[in-house]
Amino acid sequence: xxxxxxxxxxxxxxxxxxxxxxxxxxxxxxxxxxxxxxxxxxxxxxxxxxxxxxxxxxxxxxxxxxxxxxxxxxxxxxxxxxxxxxxxxxxxxxxxxxxxxxxxxxxxxxxxxxxxxxxxxxxxxxxxxxxxxxxxxxxxxxxxx
Length: 145
Prior knowledge:
Blueprint: H1 14-17, H2 38-44, H3 48-64, H4 68-78, H5 99-104, H6 113-130, H7 135-144
Helix pairs in contact: 2-4, 3-6, 6-7
């Protein structure tokens, strides 16, 4: 593996040598301060059967350089973390992608969680660029479809 990733040193990193417990994800906190943003409180109270989405959103948000809490906020409003959701306008999945948006951002199956989040975050990234970083306008446009 070291040859494949072309590491030039034979020194093992400290995490391999030292006996240490793995780091815990910040997203899995259950105790949240009362003055924390609303999304933090919402996430802290998510049932276990919906928490797996947090890791996926964290990864995809980093790929597209979009704030993960913004993505989680959109998911909470659009679908309440229920993937099988379908709107009266035929928007589907966690991020409620319309057929046109899903097609445009390469989400062939809008009910596939990974494809839905990738498509939704790509669309959000595009809107943020279009509105020159104005989150209010980007989110309003996202909600309007």
